[in-house]
Specification:
Elements: E1 5-12, H1 18-31, E2 37-44, E3 50-52, E4 76-78, E5 87-91, E6 97-102, E7 105-108, H2 119-127, H3 136-143, H4 145-154, E8 162-166, H5 167-172, H6 175-184, E9 188-192, E10 202-204, H7 210-218, E11 223-228, E12 233-240, E13 249-258, H8 266-270, E14 276-279, H9 286-302, E15 308-316, E16 319-326, H10 336-342, H11 348-365
Parallel strand pairs: 1-2, 1-7
Antiparallel strand pairs: 2-3, 4-5, 5-6, 8-11, 9-10, 9-11, 12-13, 12-15, 13-14, 15-16
């Protein structure tokens, strides 16, 4: 039997999606195959400190009354000092240092800015540590909805019409935003350009609601998208990268069915709020499903993604429209990404295993 691999599970972070990252960590800690992997749980506090966390899945359970978080426990995890080393070190609160072991792969299950946007990926590239998921460019592109749409449009992938408004635009010429929303039509969606999990997103039904929606979005980012509302079924699909020389593949699709809510918001995604049903697999005609899979893989390749992604669509009367791509989607056991793969034949532990094995294979291949 081969030696076990050591996985540094990296979670938490400085973004507003901190708790969702922690919940994802809880799911992975509970499910990862301990006969194959040793796990070093590295938490990032809301202030950005790297701490050695407890290997305790229950500590990070998602609870609406008490969202999980990484609290500063006084430890500090130190990354390798050069790209020729793999050792992680921890400095205990008293100042004593000790080795945690050589890391084979980092699993950065971080959502939002300072984690999913290429920043952590850049740090890992500098240290020479291989990791699960997309690299610097694809992570940055996938995080910024304006540039994602720009790249998709160039690749002839259908996207909803939009207008990007910066904080300076809003302060200096708010009429630009009002003109944009009038041109796009109502209802429209106002969302931060670089946030996820529907944080900071508002549905605007009339011009009088725009100011509050802009304030909500600008609290998360200094760049905001005003996006035309799209009439259609909201359907998502998961993509996995193949091993070197193999194509990416797409799962079955999952549908978000609104039963009493304006849109699929944070509370519905993670806190089991009412008004949303998730149906997986979604009912689609054969040609509809084939085209969705084709577009999802095309989107994955268009931004140069790696590892995994979830691609969110609207199925309209005129066909598919991509809403966004998530390069590190929610990965709690009830999230859409693992749910789609569960319906496609992977168990949750098998999916974790596949992501690690693919990342290790590409690292060994130099790709």
């Amino acid at each position: 039997m081969t030696d076990k691999l050591t996985v540094a599970l990296l979670f938490g972070g400085r973004s507003s999606e901190h708790s969702i990252s922690c919940a994802t960590a809880g799911g992975i800690l509970a499910a990862i195959d301990r006969s194959k992997y040793d796990v070093i749980p590295v938490g990032i506090t809301r202030d950005g400190a790297f701490v050695l966390e407890d290997d305790d899945a229950a500590k990070f359970a998602l609870n609406a009354d008490s969202l999980p978080e990484v609290v500063d426990n006084g430890t500090r995890v130190r990354w390798p000092e050069s790209a020729t080393e793999r050792e992680l070190t921890v400095i205990d609160p008293g100042g004593a240092g000790r080795l945690l072991g050589a890391v084979d792969i980092v699993f950065p299950i971080l959502h939002g800015p300072y984690g999913e946007d290429g920043t952590i990926q850049g740090m890992l590239e500098l240290t020479g540590l291989p990791y699960v998921g997309s690299g610097v460019l694809a992570s940055a592109l996938g995080m910024d909805k304006h540039f994602t749409k720009t790249v998709f449009r160039q690749a002839s992938i259908p996207v909803a019409p939009w207008r990007t408004i910066t904080a300076d635009d809003w302060a200096d010429a708010p009429g630009t935003a009002y003109a944009a929303v009038a041109a796009l039509g109502f209802p429209a969606f106002v969302k931060p350009a670089r946030a996820g999990s529907s944080v900071g997103v508002s549905k605007v039904a009339r011009a009088e609601e725009l100011a509050d929606a802009m304030a909500t979005a600008l609290a998360e980012d200094n760049k905001v998208l005003i996006e035309a509302g799209v009439v259609g079924r909201e359907i998502e699909i998961a993509v996995l990268q193949g091993r070197p020389g193999e194509p990416a593949r797409a799962s079955v699709a999952g549908e978000v069915v609104l039963t009493g809510r304006d849109f699929y918001d944070f509370a519905a995604k993670y806190l089991d709020a009412p008004g949303i049903d998730l149906v997986c697999p979604a009912e689609l005609e054969g040609d509809e499903f084939a085209e969705m899979q084709r577009l999802a893989i095309l989107a994955f390749e268009a931004i140069g993604a790696a590892g995994l992604a979830r691609v969110d669509f609207f199925l309209t009367a005129d066909g598919w429209v991509i809403n966004e791509i998530n390069t590190m989607p929610g990965f709690t056991p009830i999230s859409m990404f693992p749910t789609c793969w569960l319906a496609s034949g992977y168990s949750y532990p098998e999916l974790i295993d596949e992501l690690i094995e693919v990342a290790v294979a590409h690292a060994a291949h130099g790709s």
